[in-house]
Structures are given as structure tokens and as C-alpha cells.
Amino acid sequence: MKTLKLAIVAPCYNEEDMLPLSAPRLIDLMESLKADGRIAHDSFLLFVNDGSRDRTWQIIEELHQKNPMCHGLDLSRNVGHQNAIMAGMQTAVEGSDRADGVITIDVDLQDPLECIPQMIDDYYKGFDVVYGVRSSRESDSFLKRFTAESFYKLQATLGLKTIYNHADFRFMTRRVVLELEKYEERNLYLRGIIPMIGFPSTTVNEVRAEREAGTTKYTLRKMLRLAFDGITSFSITPIYFILGLGASFILIALCIAIYVTVSLLKGSVVPGWSSLMLSIWLVGGIIMISVGLVGLYVGKVYIETKHRPRYHINRRLG
Predict the structure, then answer these.
(1) What is the mean pLDDT of residues 178-186?
(2) Residue 315 Cα to chain centre, angstroms
(3) Which of 1, 2, 88, 183 could bridge to 9 as Cys pair (CB 3.0-4.6 Å)?
(4) How far apart are CA 60 and CA 20, in angstroms?
(5) Which pLDDT belongs to residue 67?
(6) Mean pLDDT of 36-41
(7) Cβ-count burial of 106 within 10 angstroms (0-12 exposed, 13-18 middle, 19+ buried)?
(8) How far apart are CA 134 and CA 113, in angstroms?
(9) Over the stretch 190-238, which tens digit does the pLDDT of each residue have?
């Protein structure tokens, strides 16, 4: 097996505080892997600027001028974390670069670099995909840890085949990335798509570290959006849940009708304005949620039928 030409893809969004700290560590790692003979000498780093509004792209340009191993990809606007990763992977394996494999890692380097040599060793053992799996979430807040673990369990309940406690820190060979390109949906959820591709895979355990500088750009709103994308892109179970819930309410309504009829016959009807209003609000709320969920699926179909590009490249270095 020939020496691996590796590309480490690191998406960036407003990371002017973190990038100057993480880039030297990534460069040192690449130099070490080249010296050990694990990767080819034309391996490279690819920083993907996802429409940042700060100095992130200027810093990437400076890195490229100092070290040609640092490549850059400037997207024309913010397209989201998943699409930025996809843009970086496609760029890395196509054209003149033609990397044999890619590793995706967030530029905050909360995922440990120490796992990367093991990922490469697993590649030489014949694995096409190596997932970084978090063995500990002690660095996360209680709320984030609770919601993340609950979401993974919910995914399993809904039938989604994902890797438990795996985010977007992974190694993939070029042929897996090329197969991934065949999945043309606009609402990308890589954690659900990649396990569907198949090919030999394994995992490495990692302990997520605390962020060294800046603040996370993955807000609660973005995490919730990713969660909804993950569920609605791979499962119609919520629709069946709504149908079951509707049937249950019909049964409850029938029981109430029988009770009211019996009460009328006995002459013991008591006016209940409060209970009536409570019922209206409860059923009305459930109907609105149900219609909204169905609308979410219809909206996704609407977006997919347009076949619009996931991203546009503004500039490229390297």
C-alpha cells in the first residue's frame, strides 16, 4: 500500500481568536506524521472559511504565505457547518490535490490530535472510515451533555443508524468521499449519511478537551436545527407518531362524548367553562405542532426539488 496523501480539513467560522493557536499545532502534527513516514510529503491542511465576518480569511492567507502546506478555501457566504465540511472534503479529493484520505476536525481542536496517528494506522489496516467517539463529555456543560446524549438515544429510537457519541471528527478515504457525493440532498446530516455508505469502519476513543480561546459558534439554535435535520432527513417516524396521537385523541373524545351523554340522561350536567377552554387550548396546540411538523417535511421536499448548489467558492489557496 502506497503512503497516504492526507488532507486535514478544518472548517472555520469567525475563528480569528482560535486559528492562530490551533494552526501551529496542526502544522507540527503534519510535520511529525511526514517525518514518521505515515503520510506523504505532499499532504496538506485545508482551512475552510465558512463566510466569516472577522479576520479569519486574512489569517488563512498569512498561514499560506508562511507555509504552502496550509491551503485555504473561502466560501462566498456562510453555508453552515455540514456544508462547509462537505466543501472541504470535495475540494481535497478532487482536482489537482487528489488526497487519498481526509480527516475532518473543528478548528477549536477540542477533538484530540493524539487520535489522528491512530486513525492513520487504522487506514493501513484496511479501514475506509474511522470515527472519533467521545468516551467522556466532562468538558461539556450539564445541559449540553444531557441534550446530546438524549438526542443520540432518540435517534436510535427513531431508527437512525448513527455512531453513538460521534460528531464530525473522522477519517475517510477518497473512495468514501466520492461515494458520499452521490447523496445530493441539500439538508446534509453527515453523521447519518456516512454510516449508510458502508465500507470497513472502526472507531477511536477520544476525550473532548475544553476550548482554549474564543467562544463556540455552535449555538443552541444551530444544534436544534441540526437535530431536526437529522431526524426529519432520515425518519418518518414522527409522522406515524402524530397519526397515533391523533387516534388517541379521537378515542378520548369518544369517551368524553359517552360521559356527557350519560350525564345528560342523569340530569347531572355541570357547566365547565375552565375544562372546555383547557381542552381547546390543549388540542389546538397539538394540532399546530402536528401541522408544523408535517410542514417541515413538505418544506424539505420543496428545498430538495430546487437542486440548488450547497455552496459557492469565492477564493482558493493552494
Answers:
(1) 89
(2) 24
(3) 88
(4) 9
(5) 96
(6) 95
(7) buried
(8) 13
(9) 888 899 898 999 999 987 666 555 565 555 566 666 666 656 666 666 7
Tens of pLDDT, residue by residue over 199-210, are 999 999 987 666
Which stretch of 34-43, 140-149, 298-307 has the lowest confidence by average pLDDT? 140-149
Which of 73-82, 144-153, 214-223 tops mean pLDDT? Answer: 73-82
Q: How many CA atoms lie within 13 A of 223 on its CB side?
A: 15
Assess contact for 152 and 165: CB atoms under 8 A.
Answer: yes
Q: Which residues contact 105 (CB under 8 A, 6 or more apart)?
A: 8, 9, 10, 111, 113, 116, 169
Q: What is the pTM of this model?
A: 0.73
Q: Which residue has the cell 475517510?
A: 172
Please give the torsion angle defined by the CA atoms of residues 193, 172, 57 and 79, in that order, rounded to the nearest 10 degrees.
-10
